[in-house]
Amino acid sequence: MVKQPNPARRSERSRQAILTAARELVHEVGYAKLSIEAIAARAGVGKQTIYRWWPSKGAVVLDAFLALSEAGPERSMALPDTGDLEADLKVVMRATVAEFADPAFEGPIRALNTEIINDPTLAAQYRAKLAGPVDEAKKDRLRSARRAGQLAADADLDLALELLYAPLYQRWLLRSGPLTPEYADALVECFLKAMRPDIHQFTDGEGSGKPEKQ
Amino acid sequence: MVKQPNPARRSERSRQAILTAARELVHEVGYAKLSIEAIAARAGVGKQTIYRWWPSKGAVVLDAFLALSEAGPERSMALPDTGDLEADLKVVMRATVAEFADPAFEGPIRALNTEIINDPTLAAQYRAKLAGPVDEAKKDRLRSARRAGQLAADADLDLALELLYAPLYQRWLLRSGPLTPEYADALVECFLKAMRPDIHQFTDGEGSGKPEKQ
Amino acid sequence: MVKQPNPARRSERSRQAILTAARELVHEVGYAKLSIEAIAARAGVGKQTIYRWWPSKGAVVLDAFLALSEAGPERSMALPDTGDLEADLKVVMRATVAEFADPAFEGPIRALNTEIINDPTLAAQYRAKLAGPVDEAKKDRLRSARRAGQLAADADLDLALELLYAPLYQRWLLRSGPLTPEYADALVECFLKAMRPDIHQFTDGEGSGKPEKQ
Amino acid sequence: MVKQPNPARRSERSRQAILTAARELVHEVGYAKLSIEAIAARAGVGKQTIYRWWPSKGAVVLDAFLALSEAGPERSMALPDTGDLEADLKVVMRATVAEFADPAFEGPIRALNTEIINDPTLAAQYRAKLAGPVDEAKKDRLRSARRAGQLAADADLDLALELLYAPLYQRWLLRSGPLTPEYADALVECFLKAMRPDIHQFTDGEGSGKPEKQ
DNA sequence: AGCTAATCGAGACGGTACGTCTAGTCTTGCG
DNA sequence: CGCAAGACTAGACGTACCGTCTCGATTAGCT
Questions:
Q1: FRET pair for B42, CA 20 to 30 Å: which of A10, A103, B78, C38?
Q2: Of D156, D158, D177, the CB nearest to C158
Q3: What 3-state class would DSSP assign to C149?
Q4: Could you read off the pLDDT of D41-95 as tens digits, one per residue?
């Protein structure tokens, strides 16, 4: 039976200092060379205080970036919905391409992915707190399109999302090809062809197909 | 100016011992806990001999698994081509799903991906020696299908490959969903819808489209 | 600005373990083949703990033997004083000859001398903590003899000590000749001739000469 | 049975290069940090060539300095002999003091002494080739003085030499006191008192005493 | 002059130890 | 009790040398 610390007595000042130091150091030396020691020293905190509250280096860094996202809590996560699905998706995909090219995002996101690959616990947290909400927003937009008959009525939105994003993500992660706006457009077009309603099927969208997952 | 060792004098016996030790240790302790010291000790080799010929731990492990692939040099890399594209792809995709579920592959491949994400040099090697040839074989099959009019004449095979594999790869890497044979089938079906020739387009297959990349 | 460790928090248990291990290993493998790694391993101590508190291998070994001397703090350092200077000195010198012949002393003392020759810092420590007190005891005996008119009133005790001991020490260190009791006797006799009061000088012992050094 | 190399085929050019490199490196980095690898590299020589002809680092350095001495083969080793023993010895001892103070001699000589202390083989070589001839020259001067009745007829010259030089050598080696011309003079005076002929003994020098050693 | 055997420069090898760094635990006062 | 501070055991890091061991490429003497 492991002794659990009492969260009520936790020092908020230390917590903030640690997260801030973690963020700074990721930018300065990169994730791979980031050490708990350095975070503790920078934060003016005992190492034990970190080990007490976080299970791993990855968890600290994840928290550090979560804290950023939560800072602006009511950030508009909803995707644009002008009615023109193709145009909306291209905007979003091009934005994603641009984001991936930003060197300020590059480092930390690669770092997190590194940890997530090998740590299922961390991966679950990551999905629950960061990726999940974003994906949900994306699915909302697709759901809206499906309701409007722009996507097949029986479209699996999880698979749809993967079809749209996974190629982009993979290209970025493995550096297996150039990330250009044209590539984003091409992906959207493929996606739409794959997901468009079957021509021979007279559907009016949502409700007629089999129930989707989630 | 860095002094380069002379490859002609390299000890093949040591090279093999190191690669074998690396493979064994990855299985025994996992990639994260793998140390150069342990490899050297297991291989009965001086540490310097590893540092002399490999730039990083990742490079050793990559070579270790490359050596495996090269061991069977004429391994049939060609994909099945029965003429039935959908059936052929489903077979291949289901096999990939099975492979990803094999715990013996799981560890090392995750490990390699971890390193590849953060090390562009390693990534390039990986693509050139492992992923590249495999991808080429896959593209051969798709090219054959395109020639047969089963895919759009102007289909970009690189993008096609990503469309087909990236969702699977991402789900496995991030553990973001179950990898089932049904999922493999669904991916193939989506892929075919996205890539099928335009119905209103009267094509005679290969030669009419613009030249594809590579 | 180098960070200095806080001696108040030093682990006495570790310190003792290190000194004991050092002593044992000097006997087992000799000083030249003694390594910090081996001391740390034998003592069950992290290498850093040695590097934290000692600047060099020599310093550890010096401390190890100092600790032995200090173990018996009130060891009678005073030389015999029967009033017969020649007899007393011969006893002491013969004892020194015997000590130098003891193989248990041989190794470590040679080792310390090796280091002391090349490391002025270590040499100063050695003189302050080991050689100094012993020399002082010897000078006490000579001072007593000078007071009794057995040595020249203006005899320089430092030089006297060197005259008496340096030939013995040099013969041992450089192995330039045999160390026998007869040799010890001969040295004492030479020493007494060199240091005896001048015959034509009417002295009343201590107080009449110029003040000696120290 | 160890294979012995054939000295006839030895490369004189390599030998010189090695000795020169050794000398240079002792001056540049000091004896302790001198490595066989560095000597070989500097000399443009394979390491094996050093290991083939010398048994240890110390042996190389000893040879390096021997070579220097032999360069001027007919160097006058004889000490001055004006008939005034005291004056002659003071000149010589003051010169020795000056030599020991020369930083160019300091390093290498300390280094050699370090090795000699721990390596009896090297010590023997050192005495035979370097110290021996010098000591013989000194003993020649003392023998001349003894013949002239300035020293006791039965004086042991080996012991005499030690009495005269060991204090100086020890002070220098252990840095246990200042080396001044006055100190040199004081030593000579002590020496003469210790070694002067017995007043009650009517001797005419050489021949009347018991035969000396060597 | 050609042959042959040893030495040469070069440097890779299996090792040992270095001195540094970080992980994760433990200890000591302070608040 | 949580905290900052930091010493502790443990052990990997990457480097420097050790002394041995091939490699060709000279380079002697000997035939």
A1: C38
A2: D177
A3: coil
A4: 999 999 999 999 999 999 999 999 888 776 554 455 777 888 888 889 899 999 9
Confidence of residue D15 (pLDDT cuts 50, 70, 90): very high
For chain D, say whether C123 makes contact (Cβ under 8 Å): yes
Q: Give me the mean pLDDT over the B69-91 stretch.
A: 74
Q: For residue range C10-67, list pLDDT tens digits in order.
A: 999 999 999 999 999 999 998 989 999 999 999 999 999 999 999 999 999 999 988 8
Does the CB of D47 sit below 7 A from strand E? yes
Nucleotides of strand F lying closer than 7 angstroms to a protein CB: 1-24, 28-29
User: What's chain A's length in residues?
Assistant: 214
Distance from CA of B51 to the nearest CA of A (A): 20
A112-132 CB burial, b ≥16 within 10 A, e <16 = bbbbbbbbeebbebbbeebee
Residue D71 pLDDT: 57
> Which nucleotides along chain E are within 7 A of a protein C-beta?
6-29
Of B204, B185, B197, B168, give the one whose Cα is nearest residue B88: B185
For nucleotide F1, the protein residue with its alpha carbon nearest to C1' is A9
Per residue in C88-108, pLDDT (tens digit) is 989 999 988 988 888 878 888
Buried (b) or exposed (e) across D3-14, using 16+ Cβ within 10 A?
A: eeeeeeeeeeeb
Q: Which two tokens stand for residue A113?
A: 């992915």
Q: Which of B57, B86, B112, B193 to mutate to test the interface with A (most CBs of A within 10 A)?
A: B193
Q: Quote the CA–CA distance of D167 and D100 in Å, as a whole number.
A: 13
What is D151-209 written as a DSSP string?
A: S-TT--HHHHHHHHHHHHHHHHHHT-S---HHHHHHHHHHHHHHHSPPTT----STTSS
Q: SS3 for C120?
A: helix
Asked if C214 contacts C191 with a C-beta cutoff of 8 angstroms, the reply is no
Query: Are the beta carbons of D138 and D191 closer than 8 angstroms?
Result: no
- A/B interface, count of CB pairs below 8 Å: 98
- Asked whether the beta carbons of residue B162 and residue A167 sit closer than 8 angstroms, the reply is yes
Once rounded to an integer, what is the mean pLDDT over residues A44-70? 87
Q: How far apart are the first and last CA of chain D?
A: 37
- A174/B contact by beta carbon, under 8 A: yes
D132 contacts C177 by C-beta, under 8 angstroms:
no
Distance CA B170, CA B172 (A): 5
Task: Name the token pair of B36.
Answer: 């150069």
Calculate the angstrom distance between C1' of E6 and CA of A147: 91
Among the residue ranges A16-30, B73-87, D51-65, D104-118, the one predicted with the least confidence is B73-87
Q: Which residue has the tokens 């004189």?
A: D12
**Contact list, A186 vs chain B (CB under 8 Å):** 156, 159
Q: Are 3 or more Cβ–Cβ pairs between B and A shorter than 8 Å?
A: yes
pLDDT of residue C71: 57
Dmax (CA) of chain C: 68
Query: How many angstroms separate the Cα of C21 from the Cα of each of B64, C9, C28, C65?
Result: 42, 21, 10, 12
Cα separation, C165 vs D170, in Å, equals 9
In terms of Cβ atoms closer than 10 Å to its own Cβ (0-12, 13-18, 19+), residue C12 is exposed
D/C Cβ contact: 3+ pairs below 8 Å = yes
Q: Is D30 left (phi over 0), alpha (psi -120 to 50) or beta?
A: left
Classify residue D56 by its DSSP letter. S
